[in-house]
Structure formats: structure tokens, C-alpha cells
Amino acid sequence: MANQKVAYGHGIVDFFPIALNTGGTAYEILDGSDVAVSAPTTSNKAYRNTLIGSTKPAFQEDGTVKLSWNNYDGGEDFNTFLNRFAVPATSAGTTLPDVQLETGVLETGASATSKLVLAIAYLHQEKLSSATKRMCVVAVGTVSPTSGSFETSGTDYSKPTLEFTSIKVKVACTVDKDIFDSAVVTVGADKSIAISKGFLREFLTAA
Fold first, then answer.
1. CA dist list (Å): 85 to 57, 147, 190
2. How confident is the model at residue 105 (pLDDT cuts 50, 70, 90)?
3. Confidence at residue 89, expressed as pLDDT on a 0 to 100 scale
4. Would strands 200-206 and 185-186 be described as parallel, antiparallel, or unpaired?
5. Residue 134 is inside which H or E element, if any?
6. C-beta of residue 33 within 8 angstroms of C-beta of residue 85
């Protein structure tokens, strides 16, 4: 396959509430009351940003990814999202490690916990003309507590910060095909972030 120049992005990122279930065997998409959703869809997202000047995925040496956006959204929905998810980790009384039993069950230890989100960033297509695929970066992680910082001006729009850092998932994380936006990509089967991996980076069929 020939080398290809790429440019632009689709200007959409979705965030879904997500958590490890009580048995430590799977990640679950949550609703607005932090209750697991049995068959999640795109409508279960906590927040969508479409006022994006640019997206910067920074892949880290430890296998995680940091996502940051040149963001122009400073409205009420954005701030409601930040108030729920851009919060410091809650410290536990003691710090104990997770234990993976030979049965495959994960016994989670006591440690600082953060509100997790599943981020889906819709980025560039695989070539500049006659493209059929779109790059998506999918990851579980946290929204930086410093997100939402901004400056006001009489000559420019405010650009509140928005930053996300992924984690290495403790168990394989199924990404239901129905949470992908069918107007942007066509996904025929569920995707998965493998255990101990920090993200999924893949060209998906463009809608």
C-alpha cells in the first residue's frame, strides 16, 4: 500500500461513563445515575464535543494515550460534564494491589479511584481523496481535573482546556458496536481493548 498524506479530523469526540463491575470481570457503560446499561448505544454518552479546533493524541511509552483538544465549547453541557468527571481521585484509607486469580477473576485492591470515561475520538481518513475509512482512537481513562481552565477576551473566543489520559484496562474492555456513531463510521461487530492495553487505534469503515 502506498504512503498517504492525511489531514483534517471529523471534529467529534464522545465520552461515555464507564466502570469496572463489582466482580471485576468486565467494564460496563453507565447511565446518568451510575447504573449499568445492558445494551448501550450512542445515546448513552455523557457528553459530545463538536466545537473542536484540533485534536492531539499523544501516545505514551507506557502504552497509554493522552488526548487533548483545542476546544471552543464553554457552555452548560460542557461544564456539567466537567463537574461530574473532571474531579480529583478519591483516596482510599490504604493502598493495596489488585490480585488476578487463576480463575480469571480480578480482586481489586484499595487505592485512589477516579471517575472513568470511555472516549471515542473520530479523526482523519486514511487518504485525502476517495477515502473509505476513518481513524478512531478509543480508550478508557480520566478527564484531567484541570480541564475547563480558560481565559476571557474582548477580541477572541474562550477556549476552555479539555484533556484526557487513558489507563491500561484491568480486564478486556468490550466496546459495543452500537455506541459508535453510525453517521460517522460503520462497525459490524463489537470492538475490544485488550487486557493491560491503554487504547484501541484503528481505521474503521467510514459511513
1. 20, 10, 25
2. low
3. 79
4. antiparallel
5. strand 133-143
6. no
Q: How do strand 99-100 and strand 65-71 relate by DSSP bridges?
A: unpaired
pTM: 0.90
What are φ and ψ of residue 30, in 5° steps?
Answer: -110, 160
Give yes or no for residue 18 having a pLDDT over 80. yes
The C-alpha atoms of residue 118 and residue 143 are separated, in whole angstroms, by 10
- CB of 176 closer than 8 Å to CB of 138: no
The 3-class SS string of 21-90 reads: CCCCCCEEEECCCCCECCCCCHHHCCEEECCEEEEEEEECCCCCEEEEEEECCCCHHHHHHHHHHCCCCE
- What residue type is 6 in one-letter code? V
Instruction: State the distance between the two ends of the chain, measured CA to CA, in whole angstroms.
Output: 22
Cell 461513563, residue? 17
Say which residue the cell 445515575 belongs to. 33
- Written as one string, the DSSP assignment of 174-206 is EE-GGGS-TTTEE--S-EEEPTT---EEEEEEE
Instruction: Choose among 66, 77, 70, 76: nearest CA to 51.
Output: 70
* Mean pLDDT calculated for residue range 55-62: 98
**Can you say how many angstroms the Cα of residue 62 is from the centroid of all Cα atoms in its chain?**
17
The C-alpha atoms of residue 191 and residue 189 are separated, in whole angstroms, by 6
Cβ count near 115 (within 10 Å): 18
